[in-house]
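ok new one. same drill as before - structure tokens go in, u give me an amino acid for every spot. 276 of them this time. try not to just spam alanines like last time pls lmao
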């Protein structure tokens, strides 16, 4: 059902989204395991597509948008922030690659992203990745029924700003998700608490901080998809899809439903009884 332009899911619909989320989680795990110096981003794309289709699911990204996105994953290397198109590029020692992946099960979407180091990378890059991933969890932990989207945005920004002089990408945001990959509302990675649409039970959102070692400013490359930092600085991107249940936050694209991180942050775990 829809309320105030937001798609509100029944518990049964959230259960289907959880199935889609687990397909995405498995695909990202398979790609993470495949990342190594010498592998191409096209080969990583095949790993993800093969796994998604083997589960009876459909890749969300393939054919999406205009021009149609030509692959199953986004593979964004080094200064590429998001929407990188997989192809012949071969990963090298010291690269970082952000993998964004979506899958559809019975018409319902899951969407998540990780950033993976290729071999050894400098300490500042490792720290960037850790800060970005933790900011995602801080944002998820700020979500609660009756709260506002801005609570999530503020929690992400506040954590990143406390860690150092990083760029928080402003032109690309998280989003609602469900019967389509992108639904209202937008979920910025910066902002003031208590602002924006109210968070309701049955709402599902994809939260995805994008953080750089330099500027927050970006541009779109000639392929009309890949978003890169204007100063060439490296970027990291982490994302999860979550739903708000009567119990709390349920991270649909995390294998454990987000239990470990949410409990570490003192937030109720929202999975229904007997589910993970």
């Amino acid at each position: 059902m829809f309320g105030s332009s937001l798609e509100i899911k029944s518990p049964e619909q959230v259960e289907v989204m959880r199935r889609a989320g687990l397909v995405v989680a498995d695909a990202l795990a398979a790609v993470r395991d495949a990342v190594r110096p010498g592998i191409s981003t096209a080969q990583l794309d095949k790993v993800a597509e093969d796994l998604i289709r083997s589960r009876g699911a459909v890749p969300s990204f393939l054919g999406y948008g205009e021009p149609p996105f030509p692959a199953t994953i986004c593979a964004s290397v080094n200064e590429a922030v998001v929407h990188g198109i997989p192809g012949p590029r071969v990963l090298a020692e010291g690269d970082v690659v952000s993998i964004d992946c979506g899958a559809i099960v019975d018409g319902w979407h899951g969407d998540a992203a990780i950033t993976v180091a290729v071999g050894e990378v400098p300490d500042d890059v490792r720290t960037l990745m850790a800060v970005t991933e933790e900011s995602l969890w801080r944002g998820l932990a700020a979500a609660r029924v009756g709260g506002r989207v801005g609570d999530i945005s503020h929690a992400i920004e506040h954590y990143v700003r406390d860690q150092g002089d990083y760029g928080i990408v402003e032109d690309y945001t998280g989003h609602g998700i469900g019967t389509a990959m992108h639904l209202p509302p937008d979920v910025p990675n910066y902002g003031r608490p208590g602002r924006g649409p109210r968070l309701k039970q049955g709402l599902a959102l994809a939260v995805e901080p994008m953080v750089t070692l330099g500027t927050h400013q970006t541009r779109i490359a000639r392929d009309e998809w890949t978003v890169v930092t204007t100063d060439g600085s490296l970027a990291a991107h982490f994302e999860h899809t979550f739903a708000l249940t009567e119990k709390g936050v349920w991270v649909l694209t995390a294998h454990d439903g987000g239990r470990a991180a949410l409990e570490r942050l003192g937030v109720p775990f929202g999975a229904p009884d007997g589910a993970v």
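Residues 6-264 form a domain with the Creatine Amidinohydrolase fold (CATH 3.90.230.10). and btw Residues 242 and 251 are 4 Å apart (CA to CA).
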